[in-house]
Write a structure and sequence with these properties.
The protein is of the alpha/beta class. About 60% of the residues lie in helices and about 10% in strands. The longest helix has about 35 residues, at about 235-265. The chain is globular, with a radius of gyration of 28 Å.
């Protein structure tokens, strides 16, 4: 059997082919373009690569055009963690020497010796991969929006606390269009104190507000005209210009997050798994899409529910050595899926009586809030695995059956 290892880079890639004995059969240096990809496919075909019996490939990434070319057909592509590859490198040389062709050879030998210990890239459908692109992009845009919003809040605290007080009653105050229009109209507290009722009402109307404009304008006017401490005039003007520059970034981040959310709303319901995922309490379209993005629709990706729980970081990990043993949370995990699990468990507590009862039992047992939520997420993602495997919708009575004494009383 032939094994292929590819050390990828931005412009060029190194390829190595080895046989069952570890002998180097061929090596190539290809470019990252259509010509280079053709040379790679021709090289694989020269050494027996066919559609029915493709040569497996190991590479240190799971994305990009090169991976897309390799995944055509039935070929198994293994994305090897760079840290794992570095440990394998020490098996072949203790001098700690490193080269790109040498790394390609190491990757090929990883498949030759330990292919059973690594999992190939999942065979997800094109629709699932499209949902993954949109859901991850929307998640990144949301995180970016929050980061810029925090920066703006920190800046306003330095010279413009009246704005924070004025926007505090609004949900997601700094991300709302009303806040953006008011900050543009008055980038400093001195200018805000001069705003008239008509100017405040006009700013709210430009932001799309339709109700309670007069009362809200009056409230804002009172806040802005209250007694506040000010920075020196020149410093205040400079901070106002800095704020406007940061506001441009926040508006762009808000627009990107909203546009990607609309794209997710349009694409995710088209997937056949969406009905099952959305049947679970606490999961909406955005969280459901992020969940599908990380677990995919390849039913053979996880051997059992335990594998999915470990991948999500919800199941605990045991470290035992001699007489010492400890059970701790799992640190190596899919961070995106773990973030979805926190929000999912938090929402399900109010959406599902069974989930709330399970959470309360864990708290009464002595768990902290985060630990109890993680335990709830661990249980519900196992239920999701079962439902997806058997094409069943969520059933509250089956997922959280009543305790035996209560069931006996009800009978």
């Amino acid at each position: 059997m032939i094994y292929c290892g590819i050390d990828w880079a931005e412009k060029t890639h190194d390829v190595a082919l080895v046989d069952d004995t570890g002998q180097l059969l061929a090596k190539r240096h290809i470019t990252d373009d259509a010509t280079g990809y053709k040379l790679l496919l021709d090289l694989l075909a020269e050494y027996g690569d066919t559609e029915d019996n493709p040569i497996p490939v190991a590479i240190e990434t799971s994305r990009g055009l090169l991976v897309a070319v390799l995944r055509t057909g039935n070929r198994k592509v293994f994305a090897i963690n760079p840290m794992a590859a570095a440990r394998y490198r020490d098996r072949h040389s203790v001098s700690r020497k490193k080269s790109d062709p040498g790394d390609a050879l190491v990757l090929a030998n990883i498949l030759r010796t330990d292919m059973h210990a690594h999992r190939p890239l999942p065979d997800d459908s094109d629709l699932a991969r499209a949902v993954a692109v949109l859901a991850r992009a929307q998640q990144d845009a949301t995180w970016n929006r929050q980061q810029i919003s925090n920066q703006l809040r920190s800046l306003l605290r330095e010279y413009y606390p009246s704005a924070l007080t004025a926007f505090d009653p609004w949900r997601n105050g700094l991300c709302r269009r009303e806040a953006h229009e008011l900050l543009k109209a008055a980038p400093t507290p001195t200018r805000a104190a001069r705003l008239t009722r008509a100017q405040l009402q006009a700013a709210l109307k430009r932001a799309g507000r339709q109700r309670g404009i007069e009362a809200e304008a009056e409230r804002l006017r009172e806040v802005f005209r209250a007694d506040w401490v000010h920075q020196p005039a020149l410093v205040e003007e400079a901070l106002g210009k800095q704020m406007l520059a940061l506001l441009i970034q926040l508006e762009a981040a808000c627009a990107a997050a909203d546009q990607l959310a609309e794209a997710v709303e349009e694409t995710f319901p088209q997937h056949s798994d969406s009905e099952i995922i959305l049947s679970f309490p606490g999961l909406g379209t955005q969280l459901g899409a992020r969940l599908l993005a990380e677990i995919g629709d390849d039913r053979g990706r996880f051997a059992d529910a335990r594998g999915l729980k470990a991948y999500a970081g919800s199941s605990p990990i045991t470290r035992a050595s001699g007489k010492k043993s400890s059970i701790t949370r799992r640190w190596v995990k899919n961070d995106r899926l773990n973030a979805v699990g926190y929000l999912w468990a938090f929402s399900s507590i109010t959406a599902s009586p069974g989930a709330k009862a399970h959470y309360r039992r864990r708290r009464d047992h002595g768990d902290w809030h985060a630990s109890a939520q993680r335990n709830l997420f661990n249980r519900m993602i196992g239920q999701l695995y079962h439902c997806l495997q058997h094409r069943q919708l969520f059933d509250e009575t089956v997922a959280f059956p009543a305790p035996a004494p209560i069931a006996a009383q009800a009978a």
